[in-house]
Design goal:
Length: 215
């Protein structure tokens, strides 16, 4: 119940001047009525994930299709926006275009009341609602954009990344390499082994007739 009241309070404060709040009054409520509209908006903050996303204030192009249905208004649309981020392998800046599709049902007040009468509180809490013929697209847009983003963005599929020793970008120098580092402890052991081998050679018994004194 508290969650439902919170949802209703949020919807009650919808501002028709907000770029992501849309008015459905011109659509009407006759099932099958359609309305198409386009709008350019500035991206809200946090429209992405850690490595890539839509920068706050970037232009987002929205193409929407509003359809009146028995339950309320079905919103289908596409969002296009520039992405900025960096490659997870070589950390080079990334720039590409995003196209995300979405659809969402916004029940009207009558259907919301019927849902409440059935006692299905969990379903109502998760439902975006029409409030005074207005609906807020921001939660839908945010989900659509984030779900469309690559979890591991790369500048190219075969990006070799960075050199683990010096941090050089390997794609810029395919022949980049370092001499194999030698552990000083192995150097000392190698020297000791060579000394032992030399001592063994000096102590090797000579064959008979090899000693000049025997002659």
């Amino acid at each position: 119940m508290p969650q439902r009241r919170k949802q209703e309070a949020l919807n009650a404060r919808l501002d028709h001047r907000s770029p992501l709040v849309f008015d459905t009054r011109e659509l009407g409520r006759s099932p099958g009525a359609l309305k198409r509209l386009s709008r350019s908006i500035e991206a809200p903050g946090d429209l992405g994930i850690e490595m890539i996303g839509v920068r706050k204030g970037a232009t987002v192009e929205l193409d929407l299709r509003l359809e009146a249905v028995m339950e309320g208004v079905l919103v289908t649309g596409t969002a296009r926006a520039p992405l900025t981020g960096e490659c997870v392998r070589c950390l080079e800046p990334l720039g590409r275009e995003l196209e995300a599709e979405f659809h969402e049902m916004y029940p009207d007040a009558d259907n919301r009341s019927r849902t409440a009468e059935t006692g299905d509180d969990a379903e109502e809490e998760d439902t975006l609602l029409l409030e005074d013929d207005l609906f807020d697209l921001e939660p839908v847009l945010r989900d659509a954009v984030v779900l469309s983003l690559p979890l591991q963005p790369v500048c190219q599929e075969d990006c070799p990344g960075l050199c683990p020793e010096c941090g050089a970008r390997l794609a810029d120098d395919p022949d980049h390499h370092h001499q194999e580092a030698v552990d000083i402890r192995w150097v000392a052991l190698q020297g000791l082994a060579e000394t032992v081998q030399d001592g063994e050679k000096d102590n090797t018994p000579r064959a008979s007739g090899d000693d000049p004194q025997e002659k």
